[in-house]
Amino acid sequence: MAKVSEEREDRVDATGAHPAAAPGTPEPGDAGTPATPEFPGTAGAPASAGEASATSENGRAAGTPVVPEASGAGEAARLSAAGTAAAETPAGSRADAAGDASTTAGAGAAAGGVAAETPSANGVAAGATAAAEPAPEAKKASKAGRNLPAAIGVALLLGAAIIVSLLTVRYLFIGIIAVAIAVGTFEFAGVLRRVADIRVAMIPVLVGGQAMIWLAWPFGREGALTAFVLTVLACLLWRLPGGAKGYLRDISASTFAAAYLPLFGAFAAMLVPPSDGVGRVLTFLIGVVASDTGGYIAGVLGGKHPMAPTISPKKTWEGFAGSVIGGVVAGALTLSLLLDGHVWQGVIFGVAIVLTATLGDLVESLIKRDLGVKDMGTLLPGHGGIMDRLDSLLPSAVVSWLLLSAFVPV
Predict the structure, then answer these.
(1) DSSP SS3 for 57
(2) Using CB atoms within 10 A as the burial measure, which of 11, 178, 304, 396 is most buried?
(3) Under a CB-based contact definition with an 8 Å cutoff, are residues 186 and 225 in contact?
(4) 188 touches 209 (CB < 8 A)
(5) Is 106 left (phi over 0), alpha (psi -120 to 50) or beta?
(6) N-term to C-term CA, the chain
(7) Does pLDDT of 159 surpass 90?
(8) CA 273 remoteness from chain centre
(9) pLDDT grade, residue 394 (50/70/90)?
(10) Reduced to 3 states, what is the DSSP secondary structure of residue 244?
């Protein structure tokens, strides 16, 4: 067919006129547009042998398939449907398909076994196939809002590490806190520098942060607060060589980072030293995990009323109710069974943990929205960064230490 078309073009160039086309064949300028049948029901009707031969000799325009003489009614109907689908296909789609059109040889006649060439010219067949197959539906976004298997796997690994540390040498848990705070500080300072060009005094905050956590072990609040004050002073001095531009901004960010991460984390470290330190740590962690899990499940299954749409659109009042239920049940059980406290104390503890965990989640959501980032990091698959897991733990550690010290004195 390609050779015939080239011969036809040669004749056009030589004479300046198009050769006569077979009846019903589109004009050269209409190539690719199937001819409209003169009478209803005649689309795709088999052509006679003479007409087919004349069409072939004159370089029949692409888009009008040559139908074998002996084609059956079923084949004619199929070609008619293909032509109709191609006619309904937008011109741009047919033009795109035309570039990929190919000639399919060897289509046997239904009755006489006569070989004929069936061109898929200008994408008639391709257009028909595309029209027949419905477009695949867009994959629905998961209501979970995260890679759930990865999130569960990471949570189980972290939980196993914490439990092993508590059941073997409980002071190893302080080391886990120290590592998490150091990584979280790197993440937070890195985001501030990349997004807002805010420079946290990294060395003073990192060194002072470790001092807050480890001094809280033997010296309690006095050790942590003393280390915090010295860290702020070190930040003030560290930033002096940088000049006046942005000084207040950088110092404020450094002070916030030192308070939000290591100082809050030091209160979790202070839960470890008492003789019942394992029970205190487990009560704190189980309360936060129960609050987060209860809120997550309730929000995914029935969350409809946004709690703070401008801060965290996915957080709902139904999810908050699930957090309250989970936190209260966990608080009542852990405080009474692990620390010999009263059930009513556990209820108060559970409500307080839910409030502070939710507050911590909203605060970090607001920080990330202000900075224009989705996650603080990518270290934990399905969770984001370390900071994205510490958001509810850090403020809850402070409240846990205060309430447990009041309800179950050392």
Answers:
(1) helix
(2) 396
(3) no
(4) no
(5) left
(6) 95
(7) no
(8) 41
(9) very high
(10) coil
Burial class (CB in 10 A: 0-12, 13-18, 19+), 400: buried
Return the higher-pLDDT residue of 304 and 139: 304
Burial (CB < 10 A; 0-12, 13-18, 19+), residue 362, is middle
**Residues 6+ away with beta carbon under 8 Å from 135:** none
**Other residues' Cβ atoms within 10 Å of the Cβ of residue 256:** 15
Q: How far apart are the C-alpha atoms of 361 and 377, rounded to whole Å? A: 16
H helix runs in 246-392, sequence order: 247-258, 264-269, 277-302, 317-338, 343-371, 386-390
Largest CA distance in the chain: 109
Strands 306-308 and 115-119: unpaired
Total residues belonging to the chain = 410
Q: What does each C-alpha distance from 273 to 218, 225, 268, 385, 401 come to in angstroms?
A: 8, 17, 10, 28, 12
- Structural element, H or E, at residue 208: helix 202-238
Nearest to 387 by CA among 148, 155, 180: 180
Query: Across residues 340-364, what is the average pLDDT?
Result: 95
* Pick from 387, 313, 318, 386: nearest CA to 145: 313
pLDDT at 93 over 90: no
Sequence ranges of the domains in the chain? 1-21+47-74, 148-155+275-410, 172-271
Cβ atoms of 330 and 174 within 8 Å: the answer is no
Per the DSSP assignment, residues forming a β-bridge with 380 are: 384
CB 30 within 8 A of CB 89: no
Residue type, 62: A
Instruction: Evaluate the CA torsion angle 34, 38, 40, 44 in order and state its sign.
Output: negative
Give CA angle at 103 (100, 105), nearest 5°: 150
Determine the 3-state secondary structure of 338 from DSSP.
helix
Q: Residue 304, SS3?
A: coil
User: Are 259 and 228 a contacting pair, CB within 8 Å?
Assistant: yes
Residue 280: how many CA atoms within 13 Å on its side-chain side? 27
